[in-house]
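Researcher: Quick test of sequence recovery. Tokens follow.
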């Protein structure tokens, strides 16, 4: 087997590997986008929100502007 045959064989293997990996990457991207859409939709449901977002538990009472002006003085 000469060098050109080995190069052709490596190029064929690279092409096959590239095809398989590109299919997996496309599938993973589609799954991630679907998961993002589902989780964003689930965040609009109030009873589910505390389980999905730890930040939601940190929400407190809104601050009134009048009180903020008092802090500056």
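Model:
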């Amino acid at each position: 087997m000469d060098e050109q045959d080995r190069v052709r064989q490596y190029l064929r293997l690279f092409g096959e590997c590239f095809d398989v990996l590109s299919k997996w990457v496309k599938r993973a991207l589609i799954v991630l986008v679907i998961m993002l859409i589902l989780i964003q939709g689930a965040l609009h449901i109030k009873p589910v929100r505390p389980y999905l977002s730890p930040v939601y538990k940190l929400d407190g009472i809104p601050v009134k502007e009048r009180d903020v002006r008092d802090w500056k003085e």
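The chain has a mean pLDDT of 85.
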